[in-house]
Amino acid sequence: MIDILLATYNGEKYIDTQISSIVNQSYSAWKLYIHDDGSSDSTVEKIKLWTSRDSRIAFIDDGITFHNPGMHFMHLLKFSKSELVCFADQDDLWLEYKLQRMFESFDRQTKNPYLLVSNCYLWNTENKTIIPKVNFNQAYSLEEFLFLNGGLQGCAMMFNSELRNIALSRNVENLYMHDYLISLIAFTFGKVKYLSENLFLYRQYENNVSVHIEINKNHYRKRILRNRKIPVVFAPAYKNIMSFYQIFKNEIDEPKKKVFKRYLELKDKNLIVRFFKVFFSKFSLGKNGHNKLVLKMILRKFWSKS
Question: Which residue of 91, 124, 131, 285 could cross-link 203, Cys pair, CB 3.0 to 4.6 Å?
Fold first, then answer.
């Protein structure tokens, strides 16, 4: 059984399409939990209509609102009971074999935290285009992950109950995003695996290219130059990492403790010391992204409080 967690807010334009794509999955052993964050449009009415059609869909109507997607999804996670969990964004569209392929690729024998991340098609509904090949951020170690301010993409994730239980075991202050916390747990205590297949349409809007996605090398170069005002370290991500480390440090093994400490101390170093500490380290912007990180440090300021 797979639990699917769908957080909604004023999604009347998209919600029917997304829920329909879930209902029509070739893998049918799932439970869809939906929680709304105080929508003022017809989202809730549409959800209730779906619950009357399919007993696998549960609407959690508890009146609690967050107006924060990270806290919203973490609230939803509390209702998950199954061995496998997926997040779903209200405005995407799943290909009919998404759950099937992720279920088949998932290591269900491991008792350690395990995270599987798929790929997607970039779907721009405003100019009616689909980009057939994009790359979500990919990292294979803690060093490759910590500087990815955008983290890994929640709607591409499937993870096991071992990972979920750790996420719910403590209240991590300064929560940045739900998927960022899930990623941190996987890289610290478990394993991350990537599935290269494009399994869903990821909706993008004009002038809004996600930090999670790299279309090609030229796109990355343009983005790093265009966004020079954005710092190397995004303060909310840094604060989330710091809180996570403080809460879990007694359970983190020594090699990874050193990685966290090296990352967290960089903010207080002067520019030259900081640059050389990163230059001669294994820190990277995802797989094979060490040079990208160095370039970023040359072109941008390191830290911003906002």
Answer: 91
